[in-house]
Amino acid sequence: MTNQYVSPLSVAVICSSNMNRSMEAHGFLAKKRFKVRSFGTGDKVKLPGTAADKPNVYEFGTSYDDIFSDLANKDKNYYTQNGLLHMLDRNRRIKTCPEKFQLCTERFDVLVTCEERVYDQVIEFMESKTPTYNLPVHVINIDIQDNHEEATVGAFAICDLITMVSGKAVTCLFTFSLCDLCPNKRAKYFVHNIFLIK
């Protein structure tokens, strides 16, 4: 389909567990018809439990349906009230399961991370790879707190950024200030790096 996407840019949004921040932005960008995928960088997928020292832990690749069912069986009222079941219901409408970034072989033009720790993990992974394409990949961090409200605000900020850069040649993105790219200053913190695409 020729006009499937509004931009040729291939975008990945990355948080720790591919549950909240990256999925909120994934859904928002997809509705705007951007070519987007989302990932996590953690060892496991972790969600809050009924006690602070008892998180719910899953392997990447466990379907959102299965995680939804597991939490509903454990304590449906609790996980409905704290918003996790609503979040998982949204997620399973977007894609099947949380995906680990370090296992993906697809090429992207722009990688957007949602916190500095995740940014550092992506940078470490990119530095460990041997370049196979003579093309740049832009790694951009936007700090987003891991809660529903901030994830929504962060999704708007990421969309602002991608909308602004989508009209520019990918090889020239580094010549523009990120503050210029997001003039409404919705995002609180930026870090930007460039690699040859691995």
Summarize the structure.
The chain has 198 residues and is of the alpha/beta class. Helix content is 37%, strand content 18%.
Task: Describe what this molecule looks like in 3D.
The protein is of the alpha/beta class. It folds into two domains: 10-42 and 100-196, Response regulator (Rossmann fold, 3-Layer(aba) Sandwich), CATH 3.40.50; 45-94, no CATH class. 37% of the residues lie in helices and 18% in strands. The chain has helices spanning 21-31, 64-81, 84-94, 116-127, 148-165, 178-181, and strands at 10-15, 35-40, 45-47, 56-58, 110-113, 136-142, 190-196. The strands form two sheets. The chain has a five-stranded mixed β-sheet with strand order 2-1-5-6-7, sandwiched between helices. It has a two-stranded antiparallel ribbon with strand order 3-4. β3 (45-47) and β4 form a beta hairpin. The relative contact order is 0.18. It comes from Culex pipiens. Protein phosphatase that catalyzes the dephosphorylation of the C-terminal domain of RNA polymerase II. Plays a role in RNA processing and termination. Belongs to the SSU72 phosphatase family.
